[in-house]
UniProtKB/TrEMBL annotation:
SUPFAM superfamilies: FMN-dependent nitroreductase-like. Residues 179-369 form the Nitroreductase domain. This is Putative peptide maturation dehydrogenase. InterPro entries: Bacteriocin_Proc_Enz, Nitroreductase, Nitroreductase-like, SagB-rel_DH_2, SagB-type_dehydrogenase. It comes from the Bacteria. Pfam families: Nitroreductase. GO terms for molecular function: oxidoreductase activity. It comes from Stenotrophomonas rhizophila.
Amino acid sequence: MHDTLHLRRCRTLYLEPRQQTSFDLRALVSGGTGMTLRSVWTALAPHLPAPVELNESQVLLLGRLDPERWEPRPAGEDDSDLRYLLAHGLVQAQGADRDALAEREAQLRQVPWWGPAAMLHWQGRWQGQDSVKALESAGLHTAAGLRAHLGPPPPALAPHAGEPRRLPRQPEEAFDRSLRERSTCRNFDTAQPLPLAELSRLLQRTLAETGRQVVEEDAVFLKKNVPSAGGLHPTEAYLLVQHVEGLQAGLYHYDPASHGVSALPSDARSMAELAVLFTAGQHWFADAPVLIVLAPRFARTYWKYRHHPKAYRAVILDVGHISQLLLTCATEQGLGAFVTAAINEQDIEQVLGMDPMQLSPLAVCGVGWRAQQMSTSEFDPGGQVWTPVLTAEPPTG
Ligand SMILES: Cc1cc2nc3c(=O)[nH]c(=O)nc-3n(C[C@H](O)[C@H](O)[C@H](O)COP(=O)(O)O)c2cc1C
């Protein structure tokens, strides 16, 4: 390798010593369990598809390279270590053709992520998970199972000293009744399509633009019925439509300005298959006539909150506000609705063509008519939705 090579390492990089277990027949024959423990250095960098294993000299070499400036290759380093780091996208050579990893690293540099948040986001995304199977096999799919396996939870109410001063309870109004009637819907009527007007009303109330402030032609701030950190409204909504009267089944992007939807390309898989994949095997959610994928554009929030430790938290809170309003409005319309964070983010990104560090789903909501019969439990101890009063336990979401 040429000595005047100029190098730069990737900007966002964390190193973690991990313990790896492997099976070793010799260890078994010599009277042990057959399992051996090995310590490996792992490079975590959110422009990569997966963590990369390193040896100690590669770790030291990475530590000698600058993440911002192109600098001459350090003297006395092993060629094979440098080749490995270059091949795995952890180091780039100045002037070299950009491969896909280098391209993604360059894209990532455009968004002023706070490093730990980038790591949290990148590492927390699932692919191909079946959360139902995982919970069932661990016996953690009911509240009783959780109690049996995990012991008692911290108390439902925080302890407090003395008797609280009681506040005057107010007479109930229609709004209070509607609030009480919200219950996470896990039983959708698969025979009854959702009328387009109901979907349109819901999206209009929760996601549509209601006003705007144009500071300059290229600096526009939208007003919506939900609050948003910095008034930035970074969250995009994508629809997976299965059963909406007047809207063909398929994938759509929602445009808050025109209150319109644009059809998106899909692969050969059916919407039913994708719905199960999106909701990580939760068939009770996958039945919803329409799923609403909530995916922030991180650059919009990080534009204001550069490298800010609170920005990612704010984005998550934004998505929480949207989902709450969705559930409240759906209930008021007489519909069942849910929100879930148990989603296969990586699969959703792949289907919708998202770069996870630019645009990525944080939650999926669903809405539709509730079924007449309950087959999956819902949490309705007061019998607000289902009569007679149910004592069955909900799945633990
Ligand atoms: C952020 C979030 C994630 C959730 N994820 C799931 C889930 O993955 N599966 C599920 O069945 N319910 C999920 N739920 C629903 C909760 O289980 C539900 O809110 C809780 O049991 C209380 O019931 P209720 O919503 O009917 O009052 C989620 C709720 C929230 C707010």
